[in-house]
């Protein structure tokens, strides 16, 4: 089943987070991920508001998790740590 990688982010260091984003996109694509939404307009209805919301679709939960744990994505994450507050969840779709 396909899966969605959903991140809610508050960027605290634009420069460092920009380095993360530059590396994260290719890593996500390498593991079959494709962006569905990235930083677009949103309406916060419940919970903690984060200014940046990102959704990527992967072929499976396993592919999304493999991407997250990959050397390529972890290299990208080395720039995001300390540059953002974030939550990230992987959710299997019903399709």
TrEMBL record:
SUPFAM superfamilies: Dimeric alpha+beta barrel. Residues 2-93 form the DUF1330 domain. InterPro entries: Dimeric_a/b-barrel (IPR011008), DUF1330 (IPR010753). It holds the Pfam family DUF1330. PANTHER family: BLR0684 PROTEIN, PTHR41521. This is DUF1330 domain-containing protein. The lineage of its organism: Bacteria, Pseudomonadati, Pseudomonadota, Alphaproteobacteria, Rhodobacterales.
């Amino acid at each position: 089943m396909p899966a969605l990688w959903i991140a809610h982010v508050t960027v605290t260091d634009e420069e460092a987070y920009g380095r993360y984003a530059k590396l994260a996109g290719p890593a996500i694509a390498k593991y079959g991920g494709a962006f569905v939404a990235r930083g677009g307009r949103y309406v916060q209805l419940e919970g903690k508001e984060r200014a940046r919301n990102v959704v990527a679709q992967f072929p499976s939960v396993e592919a999304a998790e493999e991407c997250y744990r990959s050397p390529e994505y972890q290299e990208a994450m080395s720039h995001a740590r300390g540059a953002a507050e974030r939550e990230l969840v992987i959710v299997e779709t019903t399709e």
